Amino acid sequence: MTSVSAPPTAPESVMLATKKKRVQKVPLFLLIPSIVILLVGMGYPLVWQLITSMQKFGIKQQFGAPADFVWFDNYIALASDPLTWAIVARSLAFCVVTAAITIIIGGLLAVLMKAAGRIGRLILQVSLLLAWSMPIVAAMTVWIWLFDRRRGVVNYLLDMIPGVHMNRFDWLENPLTFFMVACIIVVWMSVPFVAFSIYAGLTQVSDEVLEASQLDGATGWQRLRFIILPMIRPVLMIVLLLQLIWDLRVFAQIKVLQDTGSSASEFDLLGTYIYKLGTGAQDFGMASAVSVFVLLLTIAISWFYVRSLLKEDEN
Question: Which residues form the ABC transmembrane type-1 domain (predicted)?
């Protein structure tokens, strides 16, 4: 005869519930040191930005003159300026396009690393690491040489195609081609991180599951859609979120290209726009207001991912 255990009594149920709550609070306590470090390291700059964004803070204030509070006048001026919204739209379009291209290329390279042999995988990984480790200034110097209108390799190779005339074509003179070059450079610098991240996710997909689905008649597309992608979805989401945030705040690549080509407002993204308002025009109040706006925009972009995490935790 099998014995049936009696249900826990009321005191035992209370003790179990209390123990469960105590265990659930442990991760929260472990997060406290990280939260304190973030508050100390980022709290002061953030508060300073918020205060400065509501002041008339120019070059005189840099030398100790008191700053007058204008409250929300800087934000109103930005919201009523068509140039600001043109730069915001351009920055959003740029970050979405570059992030999407980066995820696609990085995903394909990750699949290639998973399918390649040991030697091929090693060569590909070393190549990606070399591209990833190259300093931004050195990489930008090489890319500017490649797209140089007089001695650039890109123009030389394209000019060899019949019917294509690219001799002395200036890629950095027109906003469209300028951002095409910027997109290529940003994608090239971002692909290694994405490829390695997705490859790490692919290594967690069980080969036995894929073999079983193949025996059941699933095609390669069906295995990718219904097995692989759902299993690496968390990796794809966090990588996409990071790429959107990084590409929205891109600065160094655009600034170096502007120094080589044109620095007109048509070639600005949010990063260079803030730089021009602050360092160029010495209007740190307006620059801080744009910085706060970029912070809020970043939070809005991140909210979709955070909400998805909360839903997964509830389930």
Answer: 88-305
